[in-house]
């Protein structure tokens, strides 16, 4: 498991160990020590140091390994656009190349729902349906209804232009990295590749594996933190794509993908591309109303609902049929439970920052 100390990686590692798997988890620096300490009592876990996933030698980490779950990836805003793009693509390809060289037959890659649309995310409010496979429709046609989107349209040149915000670059980077992974898989049919494509992942982190303090340590949970951080009476933040996946569901999807049989000869390699997303959506107006009702002590920390702007268009739909029918992911944590457990964890995390 690469990135085993991360938000999703820690959940994946915990579930794998609970199911009886033997796990090697990669990390570097202080996070390696964190992993070693947290799982010290579990004989089925081994922490392995990998300083650079994009260019490092992974032979030791892959020795005796039957499958890889690759989660390590740069976070939005942590690196320059070019560095983030290079590390995401080269990190993915380095893992895949060395997996083939080491004879590791199966790789599960963490990607993103954001690869199904252009990195502007404009199609979120265009009344379309996001799916793993379907007719690709370019941005000028997104106002048509009954349209299915499966891949965003972007390029390295576009992502490196000035003026793009960190989330735009991150989403485009995930798209290009996943496309390179599928291209590699098509050229190396001995490799059994699956991708897990969740939207924003929220939830309670594995206690004891969190590192760092402050907002920059929160990962995607920072998007929900903005609902309880700021001046009283402030307006709602701009509405992001409201699709979500609870971190436990995202982790479980990776484990389910690990158990799938290899595709038959001649099958489309992308048949193991899975969008996983909880039912409903976390719209900021609904989230604030839920927090007012269920966490009234936070009332003075919430933005006002006065003059809340309408959605910019009809909310598009995320199709999770393949995850249900092929992957076997039947149930998800609902949006309100995910919101509340995340906010509760954030309030607790704040206490360690002081």
Automatic annotation (TrEMBL):
Keywords: Oxidoreductase. GO terms for molecular function: oxidoreductase activity, acting on the CH-OH group of donors, NAD or NADP as acceptor. Residues 1-112 form the NAD-dependent epimerase/dehydratase domain. Signal peptide: none annotated. SUPFAM superfamilies: NAD(P)-binding Rossmann-fold domains. PANTHER family: NAD DEPENDENT EPIMERASE/DEHYDRATASE, STEROL-4-ALPHA-CARBOXYLATE 3-DEHYDROGENASE, DECARBOXYLATING. Belongs to the NAD(P)-dependent epimerase/dehydratase family. Dihydroflavonol-4-reductase subfamily. This is NAD-dependent epimerase/dehydratase domain-containing protein.
């Amino acid at each position: 498991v690469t990135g085993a100390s991360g938000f999703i990686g820690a959940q994946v590692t915990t579930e794998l160990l609970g199911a009886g798997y033997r796990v090697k988890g990669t990390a570097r620096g202080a996070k390696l020590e964190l992993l070693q300490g947290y799982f010290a009592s579990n004989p089925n876990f081994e922490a392995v140091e990998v300083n650079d996933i994009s260019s490092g030698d992974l032979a030791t980490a892959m020795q005796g390994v039957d499958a890889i779950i690759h989660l390590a990836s740069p976070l939005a805003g942590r690196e320059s656009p070019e560095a983030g793009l290079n590390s995401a693509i080269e990190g993915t390809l380095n893992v895949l190349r060395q997996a083939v060289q080491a004879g590791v037959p199966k790789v599960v890659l963490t990607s993103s729902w954001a690869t199904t649309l252009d990195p502007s995310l404009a199609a979120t409010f265009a009344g379309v349906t996001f799916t793993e496979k379907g007719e690709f429709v370019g941005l000028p046609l997104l106002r048509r209804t009954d349209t299915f989107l499966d891949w965003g349209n972007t390029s390295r040149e576009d992502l490196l232009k000035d003026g793009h915000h960190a989330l735009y670059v991150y989403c485009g980077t995930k798209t290009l990295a996943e496309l390179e992974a599928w291209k590699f898989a098509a050229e190396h049919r001995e490799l059994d590749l699956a991708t897990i494509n969740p939207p924003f992942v929220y939830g309670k982190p594995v206690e004891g594996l969190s590192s760092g303090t402050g907002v920059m340590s929160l990962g995607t949970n920072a998007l929900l933190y903005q609902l309880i951080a700021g001046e009283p009476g402030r307006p709602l933040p701009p509405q992001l794509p409201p699709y979500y996946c609870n971190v436990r569901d995202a982790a479980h999807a990776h484990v389910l993908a690990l158990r799938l049989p290899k595709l038959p000869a001649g099958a489309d390699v992308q048949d193991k591309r899975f969008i996983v997303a909880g039912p409903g959506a976390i719209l900021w107006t609904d989230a604030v109303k839920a927090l007012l009702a269920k966490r009234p002590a936070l009332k003075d920390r919430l933005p006002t609902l006065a003059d809340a702007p309408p959605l910019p268009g009809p909310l598009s739909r995320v199709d999770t049929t393949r995850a249900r029918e092929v992957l076997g992911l039947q149930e998800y944590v609902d949006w309100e439970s995910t919101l509340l457990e995340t906010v509760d964890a954030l309030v607790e995390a704040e206490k360690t920052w002081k």
